[in-house]
């Protein structure tokens, strides 16, 4: 019986200590709330606004990861507009149209043109306005690039020029005349992989370079060639292409495509050999 009474006493003491703890916690909470209510209202509002702004900035800077297909291509309908052989005297006008249409594109530029100082300001403008500038070799001469094994050296030189002009560090190149048959050799493809260079061909050839004064046919070629949800359109910095560009953009908008711009971190394979390492 005595042991039972002792146990009851201990139990009552524990309950009293718990109640005391709750009372102390409640008192501290009331003191805190009173302090908040009696503080400067303007200061409190400022603190809340600052906190909300900070959270907004954090949310804006955290971009949701883009969904990709099993082959690495983006989900949805996406078209990449690409222009070869620049910079040229027309680069500025192409950039004007793209800016007016709020479209980003990819420019594959040639080293011999990049060396012309009077054209470099528009190369800088292209990257500043969110376009991607990749390499298209120094010479664009088939024999030099493929028969004489100068593909990687020429591309590296061109990429270095782009970096010097724009401050960017691109890795994507487009082989002049396409990867086939020039990159048939496994040896040269291994050199490309070793150099960290990535290759892009195209899914649609607009044939714009042979259609002088015929922009309507360029538009028709692009329309007929559009068959997939992800398309890469080959074009050049030509006057007839400049004329066709607004209608090409309107066509893809009407079909529900988004306009993609290349990102080195999101590379997906697009070469005629279907070599996943390029």
TrEMBL record:
PROSITE patterns: NODB. Residues 77-260 form the NodB homology domain. This is Peptidoglycan/xylan/chitin deacetylase, PgdA/CDA1 family. InterPro entries: Glyco_hydro/deAcase_b/a-brl, NODB_dom, Polysacc_deacetylase_ArnD. The chain crosses the membrane at residues 20-38. SUPFAM superfamilies: Glycoside hydrolase/deacetylase. It comes from Paenibacillus macquariensis. It comes from the Bacteria. Keywords: Membrane, Transmembrane, Transmembrane helix. The keyword Membrane applies. The keyword Transmembrane helix applies.
């Amino acid at each position: 019986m005595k042991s039972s009474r002792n146990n009851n006493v201990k139990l009552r003491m524990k309950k009293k200590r718990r109640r005391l703890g709750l009372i102390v916690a409640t008192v501290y909470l009331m003191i805190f709330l009173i302090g908040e209510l009696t503080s400067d209202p303007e200061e409190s509002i400022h603190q809340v606004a600052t906190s909300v702004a900070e959270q907004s900035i954090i949310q804006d800077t955290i971009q949701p990861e883009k969904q990709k297909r099993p082959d690495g291509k983006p989900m949805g309908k996406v078209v990449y507009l690409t222009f070869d052989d620049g910079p040229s005297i027309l680069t500025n006008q192409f950039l004007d149209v793209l800016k007016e249409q709020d479209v980003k594109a990819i420019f594959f530029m040639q080293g011999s043109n990049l060396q012309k100082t009077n054209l470099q300001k528009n190369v800088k403008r292209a990257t500043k306005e969110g376009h991607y500038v990749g390499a298209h070799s120094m010479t664009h001469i088939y024999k030099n690039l493929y028969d004489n094994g100068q593909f990687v050296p020429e591309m590296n030189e061109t990429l270095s020029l782009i970096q010097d002009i724009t401050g960017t560090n691109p890795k994507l190149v487009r082989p002049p005349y396409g990867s086939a048959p020039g990159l048939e050799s496994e040896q040269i493809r291994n050199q490309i992989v070793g150099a960290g260079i990535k290759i892009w061909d195209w899914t649609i050839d607009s044939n714009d370079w042979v259609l002088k004064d015929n922009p309507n046919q360029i538009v028709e070629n692009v329309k007929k060639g559009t068959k997939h949800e992800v398309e890469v359109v080959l074009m050049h910095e030509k006057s007839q292409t400049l004329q066709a560009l607004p209608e090409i953009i309107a066509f893809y908008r009407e079909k529900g495509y988004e306009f993609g711009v290349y990102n080195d971190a999101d590379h997906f394979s697009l070469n005629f050999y279907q070599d996943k390492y390029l």
